[in-house]
Amino acid sequence: MDRFILGYTLPFVIAPPAHRISYEAQPEAHEEIQMQTQPDEFNQEISKLNILLVSLSFACYQSEAPSAFIREALSCHPDSSERAFIKPKHNTSYPRSECIHFVARSDIGTSEKVAVYRGYATVQTPSGEMCQPAILKVAKTAVGYKRLLHEYEAYKILSSSDVTHGILMVHGMFQDIETGVCGLLMQDGGTTLFEREQIRLGISSPTKFRISAAEYEQLKVIVRGINSARVARIRHNDIKPDNICIDAQGDWFLIDFDMSRIVSDPEEGISDDMKKIETLRDGTFDLDTYCCQG
Fold this sequence. Notes:
Layout: H1 31-36, H2 39-46, E1 51-58, E2 61-62, E3 67-73, E4 99-107, E5 114-125, E6 128-139, H3 142-160, E7 170-176, E8 182-187, E9 191-192, H4 193-201, E10 208-209, H5 213-227, E11 233-235, E12 244-246, E13 252-254, E14 261-263, H6 272-282, E15 285-286, H7 287-293
Parallel strand pairs: 1-4
Antiparallel strand pairs: 1-2, 1-3, 3-7, 4-5, 5-6, 6-8, 7-8, 9-12, 10-15, 11-14, 12-13
Helix pairs in contact: 5-6
GO molecular function: ATP binding; protein kinase activity
Protein name: Protein kinase domain-containing protein
């Protein structure tokens, strides 16, 4: 059985269940199911579920049985703010209808601290199966765990401030029942600006990037939203082509808030994010220079 054995100590670790969570492996999700699934309805349904089953299905990684994660923090869906979080019991068998199943189809960003998997999340409802593309970030170290918690906090602040335009839906934090490893499950924002330029230019490592005036206007609205959030202003601090996404509908998203700064001082300047997207508009953003500065 594949496991995320990542060797860091958490303040609490859930003991293994007395018996395996009852679950039958689901078939691969089809594009037809995804097309029939309404994202808003899916986000609402997934916010109610407390068990996340994780399977790997790419390259040489093929899970014989899913790893079971239990919810540790609420979804950022508006419905979640209206109910208190009651930690689910772990020595219990959960029926298929009470589980989210995430199948990882690729590893898209493993670092020393966090592993990032792209795949799809599936839930069962009385009306049938629902499925949507999703991302799972799994902490590999204590530092990675703190980054995931910080990122979740930033998303929660934005949700509480009703800042949703250009912001991914975060389905919650989950912890592996047997290993204590934590993961953050969220919506898949689609193709990054970096990937788009790879395809457009036909090169593997583009360093120069440019967005159109119309695209700049869309990003400007998103940046203004996070920079002026009601509960607390958020400065992203890491705007770059890898952290800007465009989905199949042409909607833009700003992603990866693990380096963000939560600004509580009303006098503190917060213009760096806007300056960064201006360099993308003007064609002066240089990835080599950005990496050196970082």
